[in-house]
Amino acid sequence: MRPLRMFSAVSRVFHTSMQESPQTEVLQVVNERTIIRVLDLSMRIGDSMLVAGASAHEVTVAVSRVARAYGLGVVHVNVTYTSITVSHHRSEDEWPTTLMRVIKSGIPDHLKLQRLQALLVDIEGGMPLDEARITYRAIRRTPFLYRSAIVLLSRAVLATGVAVMFGASVTIMALTFFAALCASLVQAAMSRSRVPIFFTQIAGGFAVTAVAVLVSALGAAGIAPFTGVRASIIVSAGIMLMLAGMAVVGAAQDAIDGFALTATGRILDLTMQTLGVVLGILFGLEVGRVLGYPMPLPSEPLQFATVGSVLVGAVIASVSVAVYNGAGLRTLIASGLLSCIGIGGFLIATSLNLGDAVASGIGAFCASFVGALVAHRLHVPSVAVTTAAIIPLVPGAAVFRGLLAVVHSDGSTDGMLIAGGSLIAAMTIGLALATGASLGLTLGTPVRTSLASVTRSRPGVRKR
């Protein structure tokens, strides 16, 4: 008997047993009408969150949380870039209840996303289903926080903040503001006419470049106050302006989380928007060259100015992006502070002789990691503060230098190699930003959860 017991003990070390299996849970009985209402509410909340800027993983978790709160233990959620499907199967002897909703494209609205996340907390806290449906309708019908004129001005201020980072003079800042405002007005008019975003990006890139070419020509003619003006700052800031609204962090997060279809759709959308900007700038530069007003190729790439100018410009740019994305006051403050952390990480990394791509990734990681820690405490979406914080690190200057080198190359091998090197460097920085931001969110979320659990488990002070 003793050898058998010893063998049984050794066997339990290597093999599982039925006794270790979890017990069957008692499921709440929910009628079919309630199931449909719960699935409809959860699906609509997920739809609104995805349009507002949440990642596919966040949407999947949110849908499951709503269903579980109202008694549906297990639901199957499938999120793609264009649709969301939710299914609940009560038993093997019944047909599953499945709903599908087509997702329409929209603009990021981080305040609405913040309110939807608060609704999820209320639902898990016991909010009745009818009240939750009414609250959701009120959130969905809430207009964008800022008026159209404020959004247009915020985009122009964003470009001005970028110019401050490069040490621009008052003249260059004013010209950058004017060029960005022209591009924003053109894009807004085309959007109201339902022109596809690919063509609006082309028009915006052309408008910014046209102003820069005109300024360069006036400076070359010796006309004050345009003499000595670095027109390349205008286009570089314009590039960062038109790339600011792209969901780079969300696309990278979806790819890391395994949502291949959603990530592919977002990446393709990002590629087409970026290609539109590139074509618009190339067209503007080529038109200037044909008319006899070519922009000179700078001998050195644009460099950041003093630390103070970089920090001030980064705060201006990140807060402007947050306004453009419809963020509330808490998100605006958090975005400004996190932009300082991100640009500070970048500057420290470059002082250690690290490359721009690695330094940009480190800066994005620092901003997103801290953002994941403080977002829950401030009750703001982490993706909102992260998206705004990394905007000052977008490689607008490298993109423009590469495009300008393409125009000056005249098809020569050496010229195309120089242009290709600059564009590849810009692409590498973009990938590093997306990777660093996604890694920061991925690592910051469990750390935040651990810190919260430690805080909850800490014993209170005894009363005498």
UniProtKB/TrEMBL annotation:
Similarity section: Belongs to the ThrE exporter (TC 2.A.79) family.
Protein's name in the database: Threonine/serine exporter family protein
InterPro entries: ThrE-like_N (IPR010619), ThrE_2 (IPR024528), ThrE_Dicarb/AminoAcid_Exp (IPR050539)
Keyword hit for Transmembrane: yes
Threonine/Serine exporter ThrE domain mapped to chain residues: 312-439
Matching Pfam families: ThrE, ThrE_2
Species the sequence originates in: Leucobacter tardus
The keyword Transmembrane helix is annotated on this UniProt entry: yes
Lineage: Bacteria, Bacillati, Actinomycetota, Actinomycetes, Micrococcales
Major subcellular location class: membrane
GO CC field: plasma membrane
Membrane topology of this protein: Multi-pass membrane protein
